């Protein structure tokens, strides 16, 4: 821009920043900003935006990028085992772009899957919208039992070929390879794609169990049991939703994987805690369509159990047991945050109100607040709401807003893990000195209070 207008670059930068802030307030997103950067071939900006999206704690992690030109290249999403190999000559000479690869974790219903078919791979979106001159080779994970699928012709490839149009073709054995957990095939269309199957025998599902982070007097503790299609609803999305609920929930153990034989029979989930047995039903049709509502099982602890209980969960389809697992459930009591509680070595047991007040005394620069907020999982836009304009100046942040942000974070972390998580966030935000000062000050205050209590008792 500075080459086309008479304004100096620093003025252009300020105007651009103001414009982008107003755009964000009107609903602008990182995804849309990345699309704009790619459309105008602002490659350096696109790389920085994609990198920031990938590592931001509050953003879904399934995004990758690479620079592709006429020599080809490779795009990968290692955490899901997705590889896209683009050969040399697939795009014209002179074209060089930052290409992003994203897994859609919602709104996958736009895929025109026919009646009787079920999606068996992630639904993937790519910023490379034109048809390739030479086909790319795609390798994807799948959720079918390979031993049950001798004929690959039951697998169908959907590829987006226009703004609202999709191509559909069967993958035959001579053009695709299927193994126990991967499927490989060629395609010239990478804008959006996924695979479906007409054979549901051996389709793999997931069971994920969540428990409350802590017990409150007002709420009866319950287990929330989700049965998921692995590529229609992702565990990461449920984790975020449960973590932000009124009483935050966290995942118990790694998800349990199991297979079904057909969609003719719904699933029965049996819950046994040693004193009672409860049975609930989950409709197969809802699971396959991507609907995701938990089954809730109430927990009752005796005084002797002290918040710890063994439970058994069995999953049945018809008379066959598809999965079973024992869980050890431990739930802490919600602490009294008005009190500083330490162990025998004077280590803090949770983040108390006094500790939050001390943090507000030590950390007051906007740059430090933003760095810490990112490490605690807050996005830039979510941090804006904590800035009370009546309590903020050019070189300091809103004290009341900072305290509210820290309390919101505290409610989403198990009490026994709060101090360690906060200490790590401070270290990663470059505020290690503040962590040492705050922890030392709280310990000193507690020792002073103990000495004072002993002194007053002797009066």
Automatic annotation (TrEMBL):
InterPro entries: DEATH-like_dom_sf, UNC5A-D, ZU5_dom. GO terms for molecular function: netrin receptor activity. Residues 62-199 form the ZU5 domain. GO terms for cellular component: membrane. It comes from the Eukaryota. It comes from Strongylocentrotus purpuratus. This is ZU5 domain-containing protein. Signal peptide: none annotated. Pfam families: ZU5.
